[in-house]
UniProtKB/TrEMBL annotation:
GO terms for biological process: oligosaccharide catabolic process. Transmembrane segments: none annotated. SMART domains: Aamy (SM00642). Residues 442-463 are annotated as: Disordered. It comes from Arthrobacter nitrophenolicus. This is Alpha amylase. Residues 1-424 form the Glycosyl hydrolase family 13 catalytic domain. The lineage of its organism: Bacteria, Bacillati, Actinomycetota, Actinomycetes, Micrococcales. Pfam families: Alpha-amylase. SUPFAM superfamilies: (Trans)glycosidases.
Length: 559
């Protein structure tokens, strides 16, 4: 699975790539039931990844290279192996130990029977199946139920308990004292539940997307309780949930804002909040809350000029209304990689994972579009987040065998939802080494998820210094962005902007960005030259380019 020393070893690669910061997914002590998002101890590094000394060395090295480090914070739930939850299991109903989590007596299967055989409410897990599990009493008899909006091994914390608030503030300070620069807050729209935990006839999803929302005849929304059922997106079809985007989360982030302020003005939080519309997401980045929030509207727009332009407008307007910077992201560890999505017959679809019997993408087309979308995102004002390996043009592992999968969503839905393993396959560093160089050079251990053969030609050592490679395109685009301070700029749509014809055209400072998502070549306007193109155009030929091909984007400067 890699380790912190491995991260340190690859910092020169990131420095050369031209990024400003690194966000690390959880490396805390964990049984790894959900890729580390089931935390057993927030203050310890899991031995799988090294030690606190390894973390400190990595952080010091990163800072020496001008790289900031953001760590993942998981405040909605812990692991079932966390000391708090183990104490809760040993304690009696109504005890202080149980009050750190959400324990409730069950409902009677027959009213008045007192057997508590039904779950406290009808909520369903984001990972599939019911959101409640029952524990046994000291004598082995059935006892109370506990809430887990994700896997059974991820019990939800009770954020009505002041002790939970104080503990998480202490965790923030622990890592801030070590020198981290910020936090990515997992499920930032969760944590607070509606009073009384009312029934809800909806079905929440890990990732809002464009799966079909059609239900069988006569089937009501939210009627699914079996683990076999695939998830369905909440909004706009279903009513607001009683456990996401509750007003109380904002008090938590105002409190955390004050904690970060104790460490100076340059510490930050970024919210992972699947919230819509954009105006509601903007509430998480008001001046006294977080500094940034992931912009999933842009990610969900797909390869479509009208959808992308609308997402850009809505996102910038919402962020501007609260004086916050916007963020731009095309892929992450919960979504099918965008080179694969953009290569599907409908490049605006948003599958929840792909398997061998699903439609397979046109890899060349998807990569061309992905490279063009990258130039768009890196020219927009605000912060750009890159997912590991997208600088290599990595596709989704769309044929990963069932026996290799590890995502709990795959198992809890009995394969109805393919899950996120396909985007989490380890990076290829060297084409000719075992595990493409991800494993130790002295070990024959296989990576935790198998890599497809298609990763070989995309390995970093095959692209380094290779003109026209995706890696070199990212380096050039990041250098261009930094040199012209595009992240601190502003957007103005150009007269050439025609999203209904598939053309995006905007200005940021003295740079004109032209992206062709249509069906015919778009001419370069008079008085401009191509400074950078997403297509593999040799540098010496850029000045002669007269038009932008389909599925290509360019940065233009005045002659």
């Amino acid at each position: 699975m890699g380790d912190l020393r491995g991260v340190t070893e690859r910092l020169p690669y990131l420095e050369k790539l031209g990024v400003d910061a690194v966000w690390l997914s959880p490396f805390y002590k964990s049984p790894q039931a959900d890729g580390g998002y089931d935390v057993a101890d927030y203050r310890q590094v899991d031995p799988l990844f090294g030690s606190l000394d390894d973390f400190d060395a990595m952080l010091q090295d990163a800072h020496s290279r001008g790289l900031k480090v953001i760590v993942d914070l998981v405040p909605n739930h812990t692991s079932d192996e966390h000391a708090w939850f183990q104490a809760a299991l040993r304690a009696a109903p109504g005890s202080p130990e149980r009050d750190r989590y959400i324990f409730r007596p069950g409902k009677d299967s027959v009213p008045g029977s007192g057997d508590g055989n039904r779950a406290p409410n009808n909520w369903k897990s984001i990972f599939g199946g019911p959101a409640w599990s029952r524990v046994a009493g000291p004598d082995g008899s059935p006892g109370e139920w506990y809430l887990h909006l994700f896997d059974t091994r991820q019990p939800d914390l009770n954020w009505e308990n002041p002790e939970v608030h104080e503990e998480m503030r202490s965790v923030l300070r622990f890592w801030l004292d070590r020198g981290v620069d910020g936090f990515r807050v997992d499920v930032a729209h969760g944590m607070v539940k509606e009073k009384g935990l009312p029934d809800w006839d909806g079905a929440a999803s890990m990732v809002e997307g464009t799966h079909s929302l059609a239900l069988p005849p006569g089937d009501a929304p939210g009627a699914h309780t079996d683990a076999e059922e695939p998830h369905r997106a909440v909004s706009p079809v279903y009513p607001p949930s009683p456990f996401f985007d509750q007003e109380g989360v904002h008090d938590i982030y105002r409190n955390w804002h004050r904690v970060l302020a104790e460490y100076g003005s340059d510490r930050m939080m970024v919210a992972e909040a699947w919230v819509e519309p954009a105006e509601r997401l903007a509430r998480y980045v008001r001046p006294d809350e977080m500094q940034q929030a992931f912009n999933f509207d842009f990610l969900l727009a797909g390869w479509d000029a009208e959808r992308m332009a609308a997402a850009i407008d809505a996102s910038l307007a919402a962020a501007s209304s609260v004086g916050a910077p916007c963020t731009w992201v095309l892929s992450n560890h919960d979504t099918v990689r965008h080179p694969t999505r953009f290569g599907l017959s409908d490049p605006t679809t948003f599958p929840k994972g792909l398997a061998a019997d699903d439609e397979q993408p046109d890899s060349a087309l998807g990569l061309a579009r992905a490279r063009a979308a990258t130039l768009v995102s890196l020219a927009l004002p605000g912060s750009a987040y890159l997912y590991q390996g997208e600088e290599l043009g990595l596709p989704e592992h769309a044929t990963l065998p069932a026996e290799a999968r590890q995502d709990p969503t795959f198992f809890r839905t009995k394969g109805a939802e393919i899950g996120r393993d396909g985007c989490r396959v380890p990076l290829p560093w060297a084409a000719d080494l075992p595990g493409y160089g991800f494993s130790s050079r002295h070990s024959q251990a296989q990576p935790w998820l198998p890599q497809p053969e298609s990763f070989g030609p995309l390995a970093a050592d095959q692209q380094e210094g290779e003109e026209g490679s995706t890696l070199e395109l990212y380096k050039a685009a990041l250098a261009f962005r930094s040199g012209r301070r595009l992240g601190l700029g502003s957007l103005e749509w150009d007269d050439l902007h025609a999203p209904d014809a598939g053309v995006l055209a905007f200005r940021n400072g003295d740079v004109l960005v032209l992206a062709n998502m249509g069906f015919a070549s778009a001419p370069i306007p008079a008085g401009y030259r191509v400074a950078l193109a997403s297509g593999p155009v040799p540098a010496e030929e850029l000045a002669a380019v007269q038009e932008v091909p389909v599925d290509c984007a360019v940065y233009l400067e005045r002659v």
